[in-house]
Each structure stands twice: as structure tokens, then as C-alpha cells.
Amino acid sequence: MAFFTLACAFHDTERLIDKTLPLAIRALTHPTRHDFEVVLVAERSSDEAVARLLPRLAELGVDELRFRRTHRHAFSGAPSNNFHGNHFTTTSPYLITFTDDTFIYKTDETFDVLDATARIFEQNPEVVLVSKVDDHEEWDWPLTDVGPAIEPGVRSVNRVVDQLIAYDTARFAPVARRLGAFDRDTFVSHEGFEYQWENLASHVGTSGERKIAYPERWPLRVRHSDLRNQPGSMHGTQDEDVKLKCFERLWESHGLTK
Where on the phi/psi map is residue 180: left (φ > 0), alpha (ψ -120 to 50), or beta? Predict the structure, then answer.
């Protein structure tokens, strides 16, 4: 039996998280034979939003709330780099991160996502990351195969995106540190050149004979509950009303369309 930390990145989508977070926790952990904790990481949140969250942690299924003001000592690049860089933890052998606008839906209620994740890591020592996000056709950087399948139904792919990433922390952290993951000026957000945490994580997972596993046959549907500003853009609308409408369409379609 293994121990997992599940960490959700939260900014200010208080209405949306009421829908996405309990659904994500249920999909990832009900049922499971493994131990886990749920951490809600409030990055760039207002003091008032965090104060409203505190009495609701049990209702949301959260064990721990972390809050960091980011007006000082912030990571460069996209604001989400603060979530990863400041709160990446190696205290658990396995870490699963996702965002407050991620729709995670399980089509087989008996499927143990944590057990399946642990099994991939245990049986494939070259695998550093596991990721499954179904709307990858929207990404600015396409998902492609890197070599043969890791095992039947599990692709070896070129990248991750931060809607849902599972880490073997002992395999990932030392390489990520060498590549500057925890240096505050590593990342870049310039038009025509983006280097963010997910770029660095993908570099870790595709270099030095390491691999990223994409289990496309899992009965798990994962989509970004937002629309792109324009086709091929890496940026979503960041409009909570749009995200709520996406969530409702995803819920009605069982995660097939937004």
C-alpha cells in the first residue's frame, strides 16, 4: 500500500471549485486501497477568499489548506508556476496535482485510479510521470508518441499538461532540481517563447531514458473546464462564468464535450 498526496491549485474560482473538487476527489480516490491526503493550495488568492474556504474544508474533502502570498519571491513565467515550484512535495512517494478548473470523471465506479497509477510506476522504473488529459487536441504543443507503448494501453508520450499530473517524487525531483525547477527565474512567458513548469516537467520525463506514461484506456475522462481564447492558444479565458458553463456541459455529456 502506498501514500499519495493530492494537491489542487486554487486561485479565485469559489463557485467552480464547489463542483470540480469533490468530483475530482471522488473520481481519484473512491474506491482505493491506498492512503491519501488532499491539499488545497491557494496561490494568488485574496485573504478574503481563503478566509471563506477555511470553514468549508471538511465539506470539500480537504485535509490541509496552504496559502502563500505571491507579491514577493514569485516564480517567473506563468502564475501557475508558483503552485508547482513552491508546493511540490517529496514527503509522499506519489504526488498528483490538478487545477481547480479540471473536470475529472470516472466511467467505471470500481476502478482504483491510485492503484493503477502506483502499478504503472512500480512495474516501469523508467516512468517518471503519469498524465491523462483528454482534450489535448486543444493544446498549442500537440501530444505525440515517443517510442513504443510502455505496456498495452499505456502510451509513451512527449509532454504533460497541468490539468492532471502524477509524479513519482523520488524519480522526478532530483532531475527537476538540476534543470532549475525550483529556481525563481527559470521560467519565461513571452509571445513566441513559453517555458513553464509543464515544459520543464516534460523535459524531465522525456530525457535520460525517462518516460511519461499516458494511460489512454483508463475509464477516466479528464478535461479542462474552460475554453481557449483562440484555437491553438495555450491560454484559456480565465472567466469563471465560462468555466461553469463548460463544467455543466461536461457533466451532462459525462466528460465527452464542453
Answer: left
